[in-house]
Amino acid sequence: MFQEKNEVLGNEKLSDAYYKIALSCHPGYAEAAPGQFVTLRFGERMSPLLRRPFSIHRRITAQDGQAIAVEVLYKVVGACTEMLSAYKKGDRIDVLGPLGNSFPIPDKIRRVFIVAGGVGVAPMVFLVSEMQQKGLDLSQSAAFIGGRSAQDILCRNDFSDAGMAVFLTTDDGSEGKKGLVTEALETAIRESPPDMIYACGPRPMLCAVARMAETCHIPCRISVETLMACGMGACLGCAAESKKDPNKYLHVCIDGPVFDTDVLNVR
What we know:
It is globular and about 50 Å long. It has two domains: 2-99, Translation factors (Elongation Factor Tu (Ef-tu), domain 3); 112-260, Nucleotide-binding domain of ferredoxin-NADP reductase (FNR) module (Rossmann fold), CATH 3.40.50.80. α4 packs parallel to α5. By secondary structure, it is of the alpha/beta class. The chain is built from six helices and 16 strands.
């Protein structure tokens, strides 16, 4: 884990609401894994007081394998992300990371389904890149990307370029099939279930994915999105209920953000 004031290498506007910021990083980020996150603090002011968590979207390495930058994909939804969108190349931002655990990639899996809702697609690009690095053939795998409208459909080419089938759904039908991403997932599971499901997105989507995985006895790992005060387990503010013991609470920042759906009570 490293805390540094890293240089902004670029802050690209992807659509009306979505941006991608590239930040220089410590060489130690070569050990960062898909699903881990960073927390950012904006400027020198005490407002906002708390750091904000963001999934690592991509890790950029030099030819010798040394990490030189990380990318964060984000949506402007409030004051903090509005501030983040104003950063320019050459500015510096306080970065703490990499934090949390990561998506496991078992050696024996051959067919995976990736499910992403909106900006939940962010860690999945890193995951697919890591799978390719491990030599996993993704030609029998699929990505299910959903959003409210066409502008919420991101990174489709990252999955198709990896050889994956890509299924798009939007609430308003402006891109792909009209409906919920979980509907497309359910159809695909019935036709040919995968060895593993990975998911990240809104809580209702994660609940539906977890129920399907449990019903069909498919291993499933989800990345939980939540506000965090510290990101290191000190404040205990990101509590999540354990599925195995309702009297026990897990903490997203240190026990997650990636959870086995057999362990976390997703409701």
